[in-house]
Specification:
Blueprint: H1 11-17, H2 20-31, H3 35-54, E1 60-67, E2 71-78, E3 88-96, H4 101-105, E4 115-116, E5 120-128, E6 140-143, H5 153-156, H6 175-178, E7 189-191, H7 194-197, E8 199-200, H8 207-210, H9 216-224, H10 228-234, E9 239-243, H11 255-266, E10 271-275, H12 279-287, E11 291-293, E12 304-309, H13 314-322, E13 324-332, H14 344-350, E14 353-356, H15 361-373, E15 385-388, H16 392-401, E16 407-410
Parallel strand pairs: 9-10, 9-12, 10-11, 12-13, 13-14, 15-16
Antiparallel strand pairs: 1-2, 1-4, 3-5, 3-7, 3-16, 5-6, 6-8
Helix pairs in contact: 9-11, 9-15
């Protein structure tokens, strides 16, 4: 049951509560790498929008738009153009909320509003380009939230979240800062590189169960899977400590942290501790078989060889590092804040490995789907609400103002 209610910020309050240093750091990161490419992309998107306003030439479709003040509404927008030789057009059939969606819609992030919302989905292919070979019309596919070409040096190395063929941090559902690729709460989504991006949904896997594989399931997986097998070889009783929210009222939802716990279970961890200040979140974690504790209990706990920080705050990073054992690993989602104080001497003395960064989702999806197909990893156990896409404004409006963990919308 939801215990907290969150109020949205309007444009003025969003700007007033956004630290200019956070915006400056984000701008430097976004435009400091391939700045010309990003500017060209934004210019092309602006010119295409202007042409459609003056002389509409594309069919219209509905897309869910998030506006200032937490407003969610269907809007008629231009449909994606016909796919190019390498592209595809898909029709989302199962769409999921991300942990970042709530603060984004509420105006608690630097992301400008309005924007077309949504970046986690399973979809059906409705059109493909002439050179597409791996998917066909009618296939059901997982659509990774990050745009990647599959051919550049970064993609060939598996670093698909850093694709060099598109502007940095190109992704669905984040509007201006994501590069204006549209959102997945829509009738149609354009996929520029179909063979590189789209992953067929395995037989027997329900679309609603796999919708979040497009982002948050893989995000939870990548904090655990690269490190845990080696640590378990060293010590079969290796503890995995997962740190969620440290304050009790916290707008980010908790699915990534829970998926990290499920991944640890799937890979054989026997000791998984889940730390969160929110009582209902601890209840969810306990229901999934995780040992749930309040942050106040951390001081009495031993250091853990693998610590996963999903707090999204500078305080969370520091807390996670303080609880990481010698020669251990701390994997963090990082933060939208411009900086955090890192205890460098502690890392040095304990020989701690710290990783902060984004997931290379397209590379991870096949491995995650293998676990889902084998029923070793069951993302559907984290889902708290299933609803029809037609009811999206009302259902997602409730999700954004409550502390619901994961809402899945489906068509038909």
């Amino acid at each position: 049951m939801s215990l907290s209610r969150f109020r949205p910020y309007g444009t003025v309050r969003q700007l007033a509560t956004t630290d200019p240093r956070d915006m400056a750091a984000a701008s430097k990161a976004l435009f400091g790498w391939n700045a010309g490419q990003r500017v060209s992309r934004l210019r092309e998107a602006a010119m295409a929008a202007a042409r459609e306003r003056v002389r509409p030439g594309r069919e219209r479709m509905r897309a869910l738009v998030a506006g200032p003040g937490g407003r969610l509404a269907w809007r008629q927008v231009p449909a994606p153009p016909p796919p190019g030789p390498l592209g595809a057009t898909v029709h989302p059939i199962a769409m999921a909320t991300c942990d970042l969606d709530r603060p984004l819609v509420l105006g608690r992030t630097p992301f400008p509003l309005p924007l077309q919302l949504g970046h986690e989905c399973v979809a059906e292919v409705v059109a493909v380009g002439s050179q597409v070979r791996t998917v066909k019309v009618g296939d059901r596919v997982v659509v990774p939230f990050e745009i990647n070409c599959g051919e550049c040096g970064a993609c060939r190395a598996g670093l698909t979240g850093s694709c060099r063929a598109v502007p940095p941090v190109s992704m669905y559902g984040f509007g201006l800062l994501g590069g204006h690729w549209g959102g997945t709460y829509a009738d149609l989504v354009g996929v520029p590189f179909a063979d590189a991006m789209l992953v067929p949904l395995p037989e027997g896997v329900e679309p609603a169960a796999a919708a979040s594989v497009a982002d948050t399931v893989c995000d939870g997986f990548r904090h655990v899977a690269p490190h845990l097998p080696r640590l378990l070889e060293r010590d079969p009783d290796t503890e995995v400590l997962i740190i969620g929210a440290l304050p009790a009222r916290y707008p980010f939802s908790v699915s990534t942290a829970l998926y990290a716990g499920l991944t640890a279970q799937a890979l054989g961890a026997r000791r998984i501790t889940f730390c969160d200040a929110r009582g209902q979140v601890r209840e969810e974690a306990a229901r999934l078989g995780l040992e749930a504790i309040h942050p106040s209990e951390l001081r009495r706990r031993d250091l853990a060889p693998l610590v996963v920080d999903i707090s999204g705050t500078p305080q969370g990073v520091r807390t996670a590092l303080a609880k990481t054992a010698p020669d251990g690993v701390c994997s963090s989602v990082g933060s939208l804040h411009h900086s955090a104080r890192i205890p460098v001497s502690l890392l040095f003395i304990r020989n701690i490995t710290l990783h902060i960064g984004r997931a290379h989702t397209r590379t991870l999806i096949p491995r995650v789907l293998e676990l889902v197909t084998a029923k070793a990893l069951r993302p559907e156990t984290v889902t708290t609400r299933l609803a029809d896409l037609d009811d999206a404004p009302e259902v997602l409006g409730d999700h954004m103002t409550s502390d619901t963990t994961k809402t899945i919308l489906t068509t038909g």
